[in-house]
Amino acid sequence: MIEIHNIHKSFGGKKVLDGVSGVFETGKTNLLLGASGTGKSVLLKCIVGLIKPDIGSVTFDGTYYTNNKLDIRQEIRRKIGMLFQGSALFDSMNVEENVEFPLKMLTNMSKSERMDRVNFCLSRVGLENANHKMPSEISGGMKKRVGIARAIAPNCTYLFCDEPNSGLDPQTAITIDELIKEITEEYNITTIIVTHDMNSVIEIGDKIMFLYKGKKLWEGNNVEIMDTDIKELNDFIFANRLMRDAKKVEDERAEEEDRVEEERKGETR
Amino acid sequence: MLANFGKYLLFIQSLLARGEAPKIIFNRTIDEAILIGINSILIVAIVSTFIGAVTCVQISYNLTNALIPRSTIGFMVREMTLLELAPTITSIVLAGKVGSNIAGGLGTMKITEQVDALEVMGINSASYLVLPKIMAAVMVFPMLVILAMFLSIGGGFVAGALSGEITPQEYISGIRGDFVPYNILFALIKSVVFAFLISSISSYQGYKTDGGALEVGEASTKAVTNSVIAVLVADFVLAQLLL
């Protein structure tokens, strides 16, 4: 369980987080939801420790983290797995080496033990035959899978995902969402996901925290979110639906145009 | 500028604050040394050979007094090579090649969150990524400078002989005369200092990159210009202190 208390963060006088508190439960996919620029990623980085909050504290399973001694922070960090927005795979290493890297750095496993674990993690995310591919040779969805495999390789207790669906087609996005949810439940870890995608909310939102202008405006699950009477949240949901519908119409139109074109070509022949 | 210098010093301090295991740093240092060394041999060889050749021809052109023996040309090529051309010119060339490479590589890692990925794993990214680069540069630069010394003096020999300005016997006599072994030590000390400056300044510029591709390009440019300035200032200071 991760607890955050009264997190404040400003950049150059601009307040990005304004007293955000909350609890992220173990074995559940906790979502940080909000429009772009509401401070979701900053909050995630404050929790992970990549950014130091101006005020406030973060606790991992009862252990104070934010300003604790370096060795205690290091100890907690070694239990953290993170999937970055752009996957952040190491360019100079192939898929196998990327997944092996945290095991090499953080554990005393032998080479054969490491390779067993790497192969297990890669098969867990559905990438059995990609060991020797370089990051530049694989698709965005595959990169996300490798990122997840790398995050879970050292048996992480806490999994953080920064917009895991960004840049993916809807089908792959759902697959990645489901994979994260399965892994969370299977290993009983605490997962926090930053997203602005309502599909993710409906699919995997065990617990959702809605941020608006740096403040927590609402908290609940994927059923309760549909009955909320908070105007900002409803606007956000409506905008998402509108986007989705617009995209659907656009896709249907494109399909229709393709069909007409095919027919025309057939007649010409 | 002063604030930037302070940040640079803090960055250097952070490399040693919580270092990674010596074995990991050692392995990475060897990898980096191979990269810096092997990839730089050709450019160092070309530049130093031609600089030696040009130095020989130009000294010969200026040395018109019949009372000065022709072997002086060999002597002057050797002295100029050992004291200045081999360590400084090689370092300036490497500032362009190695410096921009370090800054560009680290800058790209920074903007694609690869540095953050290391930090999240509890790894001191500065120590893991930068320390081996600095150690490798400090290890490899003196070797490249020694190579440059041989090739530069050799370039002078070939140019002198081919142009007929000086006979091979005169040239060899010149480069053997009044030899001061300390000059080689001085050149090697300079190369170590320059290696540290170039690799650390370039790493600092790359490591503090924020933004996108444009900023990575800016970081590479700043790495080269700042390194070259630092090398020239250090060259003067070392000459004052050690000669």
UniProtKB/TrEMBL annotation, chain A:
<keyword id="KW-0547">Nucleotide-binding</keyword>
<dbReference type="InterPro" id="IPR003593">
    <property type="entry name" value="AAA+_ATPase"/>
</dbReference>
<dbReference type="Pfam" id="PF00005">
    <property type="entry name" value="ABC_tran"/>
</dbReference>
<keyword id="KW-0067">ATP-binding</keyword>
<keyword id="KW-0813">Transport</keyword>
<dbReference type="InterPro" id="IPR017871">
    <property type="entry name" value="ABC_transporter-like_CS"/>
</dbReference>
<feature type="region of interest" description="Disordered">
    <location>
        <begin position="247"/>
        <end position="269"/>
    </location>
</feature>
<dbReference type="InterPro" id="IPR003439">
    <property type="entry name" value="ABC_transporter-like_ATP-bd"/>
</dbReference>
<dbReference type="GO" id="GO:0005524">
    <property type="term" value="F:ATP binding"/>
</dbReference>
<feature type="domain" description="ABC transporter">
    <location>
        <begin position="2"/>
        <end position="238"/>
    </location>
</feature>
<protein>
    <submittedName>
        <fullName>ATP-binding cassette domain-containing protein</fullName>
    </submittedName>
</protein>
<dbReference type="GO" id="GO:0016887">
    <property type="term" value="F:ATP hydrolysis activity"/>
</dbReference>
<dbReference type="InterPro" id="IPR027417">
    <property type="entry name" value="P-loop_NTPase"/>
</dbReference>
Automatic annotation (TrEMBL), chain B:
<keyword id="KW-0812">Transmembrane</keyword>
<feature type="transmembrane region" description="Helical">
    <location>
        <begin position="134"/>
        <end position="162"/>
    </location>
</feature>
<dbReference type="GO" id="GO:0005548">
    <property type="term" value="F:phospholipid transporter activity"/>
</dbReference>
<keyword id="KW-1133">Transmembrane helix</keyword>
<feature type="transmembrane region" description="Helical">
    <location>
        <begin position="33"/>
        <end position="61"/>
    </location>
</feature>
<dbReference type="GO" id="GO:0043190">
    <property type="term" value="C:ATP-binding cassette (ABC) transporter complex"/>
</dbReference>
<keyword id="KW-0472">Membrane</keyword>
<dbReference type="Pfam" id="PF02405">
    <property type="entry name" value="MlaE"/>
</dbReference>
<feature type="transmembrane region" description="Helical">
    <location>
        <begin position="182"/>
        <end position="204"/>
    </location>
</feature>
<protein>
    <submittedName>
        <fullName>ABC transporter permease</fullName>
    </submittedName>
</protein>
<dbReference type="InterPro" id="IPR030802">
    <property type="entry name" value="Permease_MalE"/>
</dbReference>
